Amino acid sequence: MIDNKYIIYHIPGKKIGVTNDLYNRVECQQGYEVGEYEILESSDDIDYISKREIELQKEYGYKVDLIPYNELSVNLKLKNMKINVTEQTTTFPCPLNKLKGQLMDNLEMRWDTEHGSVYLDTDLIKWIVKNAKTSMFNNERCYVYNKAMIKYLDHKRYKNEIDELPFKEDLYEHEDNVVFYFDKIRDWAEDKGIYKSGDPKTQYIKLMEEAGEVGRAILKEDLPEIKDGIGDMVVVLTNLAELCGLTIEECVESAYDVISKRTGKMKNGTFVKD
pLDDT tens across 43-55, in order? Predict the structure, then answer.
C-alpha cells in the first residue's frame, strides 16, 4: 500500500504519469488492471514528484508533459482549498451558493476522514452540493457529515462493481438477492428526478399516506393491498434515506444492530423491551 500522496505510475509502452489516486486515475478512468501498470516512485512532495515525472518520461523515451504536474491549474487551485476535517464533518471555506464552483476548481482533491478516504470527482461534488449545510457558527462556511459521505462512496463503489458483472441481471432478479432491489429503486428515483427536486419533508408526507393505506387494507383484510402498500412504503423509505444523505441498507443495519441486543417479552401482541 502506498501511503505517500503523489504516485508516479508507468503503463509500459504507453506513458508515465502522476496521480494522487492510483485506483481512480489508472484503473477507473484509463481502464488498466493490476499487473498492466507499475509504480515507479511516490512522495508527499508535489514539487519533487513533478520534476521526477519529467525526468522519467525522458529516460523512458515517452512524450514529455509541457506543463509540470505541480503547475496544472487543478493543483494550483487545490492548494487554496482549506478544508477542515473533524471526526464528524468536513467543512468547506465558502457559503453554499459558491460551493459547487469551489469544488469544481478542486477536482481530484483527496482527503482522509475517520470513516475513510475521499476522492473528489464530479459525482461526489453533486452529492456534497445536495447534502451540504450552512455552518451554525459562520454563514460563510458549510459542511457535510463524513459518515454519510463515506457511505455514499462505499455504495457507489459497490454498485459499480456489480454493474461490471456479466451476470448482473441474474443477481437483480434472484429472489435471494432482494437487496439489489434497493439499487433498482434508487435508479428509478434518479431517473424520475426525485433526488434532484424532492426533499425529505415531502417523502415523509408520502410515507404517512402509504401507511394510512396499509392501515385501511389491514382493516379490510385485503392481502393484495397490504402487500402493495408495504412495498410502496419500502420505496418511499429508500428515497427518504437517500435524500437525507443515507442509504436504506445503512438504516436497516443500524436498526438491527440495536434490536439484536434487546431482551423483552410479548405483551398484548407487541414485543416490549426490558
Answer: 888 889 999 999 9
